[in-house]
Amino acid sequence: MTALNEKAMLVSLDISYYRATTTNRQATDTAANVLNTTERYVSVTGRLIPKETLDEIRRIVGQARNFLDGKSPGAADGKTLPGGLPHWDKVTRILPSSHGFNEQVIRNLGAFKDKFDEEVEKVRRALPDAIATAKRENPEIAGRHYFPPVDDIIAEKFSFRWQLDVIPDSGDIRVEASKEFVEELRASVNERAASKLNEVTSHTVRTVIEVARHLADSLDGYDPDDKNKSPFRDSTVDRVRDLIPVIRALNVKADAQIDKAATDLLAAVGNKSAKQLRTDTDDRKATAAAARKVADNISSIFN
């Protein structure tokens, strides 16, 4: 069996930013009375500064997190990671060390950090006026709140970090303990690594099936006489092409069937554009059939 620690590493993303909210006790009591409940079940928060001051920073944070989920394009290359990176635990993900792929992920995280840092500087400049405006327009909430110096808010409330780590290897265990304890620990490490290796394979297969079937359904459902009914977007084809390097990287077991599925899916799309598939009925039907065949084949093998 392929050792997962030889084929991948761990990456975690830790972002924090100033929420600028506070619980309002008076509003909470009022809401609780209206809803015939207590503060154990309802609370009302108020904004300490105008919402728009932090809108862009929230957007960047969401994009960075969604990038690892495969839901947003990277800030450096505009490419998505269809299906996202598999989880090792709640905060850490498995990052294949495939040549070029890990660099792509880190390069995009770096670009997100650059955007984050640029926006933090804009927030730094905007905060004094934002606080003054809030105290004037919102005296019952912001007017009674203590705001630390702006530089302290920036230093304490904003951070963007990612961390790379190795996947535990039972061969590296160095502890002073009984032989039985060490053997049990080694077995536990091996068991988790083996389980995660299988999860990576399952994640990869699910992603191929999902993307292939979405392509097939979108093509089959497209009606050139009623384009708004079931629109076929350029991003549907882009997602297939973005998927191929992700699948090759996540195929840490070097499974021939997964590799073939990636090859067949890429062949189904070929060099066709979304515009061509929208206008050429025969191409559209053939591509849909080929994509559905990829999904059905790999599904029958692994399910």
Taken as a percent bin, the fraction of beta residues is 5-15%
Q: Which class best fits the helix and strand makeup?
A: mainly alpha
Gyration radius, rounded: 25 Å
N-C termini distance: 20 Å
The H-and-E topology, N to C, reads as: HEEHEHEHHEHHHHH
Which segments are poorly predicted (pLDDT under 50) over 5 or more consecutive residues? none
* Order of strands in the sheet with most strands: 4-1-5
Profile the largest sheet. 3 strands, antiparallel
Number of domains: 2
Give the % helix: 55-70%
Net shape: globular
Q: Overall pLDDT, averaged?
A: 88
Q: Strand tally, please?
A: 5
Number of helices: 10
Notes on the protein architecture:
- It is a single chain.
- This protein starts with a helix and ends with a helix.
- It has two domains: 4-166, no CATH class; 206-302.
- 26% of the residues are buried.
- Helix 6 packs antiparallel against helix 10 (281-302) and helix 8 (256-269) packs antiparallel against helix 10 (281-302).
- It has ten helices and five strands, in the order H-E-E-H-E-H-E-H-H-E-H-H-H-H-H.
- The model has no long low-confidence stretch (mean pLDDT 88).
- By secondary structure, it is mostly helical.
- It has helices at 4-7, 25-34, 55-69, 101-137, 150-157, 179-221, 234-250, 256-269, 274-279, 281-302; strands at 8-16, 21-23, 45-47, 92-96, 159-166.
- The strands form two sheets. Strands 4-1-5 form a three-stranded antiparallel β-sheet.
